[in-house]
Amino acid sequence: MSNQRWTEVDNYLNKHLVEQDVALLCALNTNADAGLPAIDVSPNQGKLLHIYARMIQARRVLEIGTLGGYSTIWLARALPEDGKVITLEYDERHAEIASQNIRRAGLEDKITIRPGAALDTLPTLHNSEPFDLIFIDADKKNNPAYLEWALRYSRPGTVIIGDNVVRDGAITHPTPQDENIAGICRFIDLIGQNSRLTATALQTVGSKGWDGFIIALVNH
Ligand code: SAM
């Protein structure tokens, strides 16, 4: 099947199951108008993150990789009144657009954007309570380091999700030059070997092509 068919099917599923309100639609339009790359999660994936967060009654979420805040909005909307998403973004322009989108969605009290490289901002979170859900979706070469931080900021029951772990199947044909694929392979390996984690991964196809999510639960 082609990307076009996958997109048609995503559109069908979204039409029946995934209602996007003005704030979510505006976020995607604003991102496009501002020239941000369309590498946000798809609507059905955003809703999946939202459902995961609700399933575990998440109150505190950490996101690494904000872009224009599309996934951030889905996640924040899953949280109770006193819930909080801390989202880390390297690119100043992305952070600025995300902040506009978040304000438009009325979620500025629930979401804090920490600008800067995640490996610089992660250590500054050491005084926070553990997170209930951690979504890793930034530069894939640093995924092994992000996993270490995620484990440090977890508690038993925390769910750690990583996006883009399949990358058109490249994980089974890594080339030495591609540090992002190397980062993903090491990330999968580290998760698989960690006795604190119960994990699986799923391949996905859809409007964002052929990719996949990894999901790991911190054991009790
Ligand atoms: N989670 C977003 C969504 O679904 O709407 C998409 C995030 S996009 C795939 C990855 C983002 O990570 C980009 O905005 C990029 O600028 C950011 N990024 C890349 N390297 C980073 C780093 N070292 N620290 C923090 N953010 C980084």
TrEMBL record:
Q: Which Gene3D superfamilies match?
A: Vaccinia Virus protein VP39
InterPro entries attached to this UniProt entry: Cation-dep_OMT, SAM-dependent_MTases_sf, SAM_O-MeTrfase
Keywords for this protein: Methyltransferase, S-adenosyl-L-methionine, Transferase
Q: Which GO terms describe its biological process?
A: methylation
What's a Gene Ontology MF term here? Answer: S-adenosylmethionine-dependent methyltransferase activity
On the tree of life, the source organism's domain of life is Bacteria
One Pfam match, by short name? Methyltransf_3
Q: Report the protein name in the record.
A: Methyltransferase
Q: What is the lineage of its organism?
A: Bacteria, Pseudomonadati, Pseudomonadota, Gammaproteobacteria, Enterobacterales
